[in-house]
Every structure is written in C-alpha cells, then in structure tokens.
Amino acid sequence: MDHRIPDASDLGHLIRDARKAQGLTQDELAGMTGTGRRFISELENGKETSQLGKVLLVLGALGIALYALSKWK
Amino acid sequence: MDHRIPDASDLGHLIRDARKAQGLTQDELAGMTGTGRRFISELENGKETSQLGKVLLVLGALGIALYALSKWK
DNA sequence: AACAAATGTTCCCCATCGGTAACAAAACAG
DNA sequence: CTGTTTTGTTACCGATGGGGAACATTTGTT
C-alpha cells in the first residue's frame, strides 16, 4: 500500500506500523540500522529534526520504498 | 512523473531539477521555505544529515509529493 | 573574451542531534 | 493482579547542523 507523507508525524506513524507489523522492537530496529533506540523513538513520534540519511536507512531496513511525485520530471 | 528515492543524493538531484524547472534560484527557494541558501545547496548536493522537516518544507514548496510504498500497510 | 548571475565553500558560532545509560511509565502476558 | 517487556523521557556530552556573510568558482549571456 502507498501512503502520502506530508510531514514528519505521518512518516513516524508509518514507520511504527511497519515495524510492529514485522514484529520488531525499537531496540532491534535501532540495531539493524546502526542508530540508537532514542532516535527510533523520536522518529516514530514525528520529530522534525531527524537526519535524512538515518531516516532513509530505517525505511530501507523496513522494506519501505520512497517515491517523489512531481509534475516537473 | 514519479521517482524512487533510495538515498539523499537522489533526492538532491530531484529537488535541483524541480527548482530549475520552475525557474527558481537557490536564494529564492531558501526564502520561500524559511531556510538558508547554504541549506539548499547542501541538500541538492546530497547531504545526508539534512533535517527531515526542512526537507519536507522544500519538497512542499516545489509541489513535490512524497509517497511511501510498503507491503505492510 | 568580459561582465553578471548563480552556486559552491569557508568561517564564526549558537543551538541541538543523537548515542549511551538510567529511570519512569505503559503495554502485555500469564 | 503481578512480573516482564517495551517505550518514553531525562541527563550527560561530544559532534555537527545550519544561519549569515564573505569569498571562490562555475555557469550563462552577449
């Protein structure tokens, strides 16, 4: 299924749902992505200042692909 | 058109292309999003540590919608 | 080639990210 | 209800994001 991501909290919810659907704890996801449990917790709660690269790492680890829809290219 | 965004540099290229297609300078885009020209420059060049919220602001200003494609929900 | 505009890059510097660890509060299982 | 697991939150702290401004470099125009 695909979800529009207008802001950080939408992404957070999506990540939380995907993680739970795969039976992972925040700790495990943090370990898989070389981040910390705190980062995952804050990300899932919609923190605006999470760093892009780490966010993409987490998405990748969860098998979530990101798409940009633009009229320009 | 839609583009897969596997990492920060892909997003950077996409943003640059969209900005140019709309005839905007980095300075103008920075102004529209309340960021700085330096932020835009680094973002377009694929900086991994750009902050999520500001990135989403820039995408919004350019009329680019983000979608997450997951098998889990 | 010459001038202008746009972008890249550096410096100064304050604010804050995020790792680890510890504790509190929730959510669950039996 | 009780013990356990998971998650939220805080403190500590080294590292760095990013704003503004100045300068260097590239790109574009004529």
What does the secondary structure layout of this molecule look like, with pairings?
The structure is a homodimer of 73-residue chains.
Chain A: E1 2-4, H1 8-21, H2 26-33, H3 37-44, H4 52-61, E2 65-69
Helix pairs in contact in A: 2-3, 2-4
Chain A binds a DNA duplex (30 and 30 nucleotides) through helix 3.
Structure description:
The structure is a homodimer of 73-residue chains. By secondary structure, chain A is mainly alpha-helical. The first copy, chain A, has a single domain, classed as Orthogonal Bundle (434 Repressor (Amino-terminal Domain)). The first copy, chain A, contains four helices and two strands; from the N terminus they run βααααβ. The longest helix of chain A has 14 residues, at 8-21. β2 (65-69) of chain A pairs antiparallel with β2 of chain B. Chain A binds a DNA duplex (30 and 30 nucleotides) through α3.
In percent, how much strand structure appears in the residues of chain A?
Answer: 5-15%
CATH class of chain A: Mainly Alpha
Oligomer: homodimer
Average pLDDT number of chain A: 96
Helix-strand pattern of chain A, N to C?
A: EHHHHE
The CATH topology of chain A: 434 Repressor (Amino-terminal Domain)
Q: Summarize the largest interface: chains and residue counts.
A: A-B, 38 and 38 residues
Share of helical residues of chain A: 40-55%
Estimate nothing, just give the exact number of structural domains of chain A.
1
Secondary-structure-derived class of chain A:
mainly alpha
CATH architecture of chain A: Orthogonal Bundle
Structure summary, number of beta strands of chain A: 2
Radius of gyration of chain A: 12 Å
The H-level CATH homologous superfamily of chain A, spelled out, is lambda repressor-like DNA-binding domains
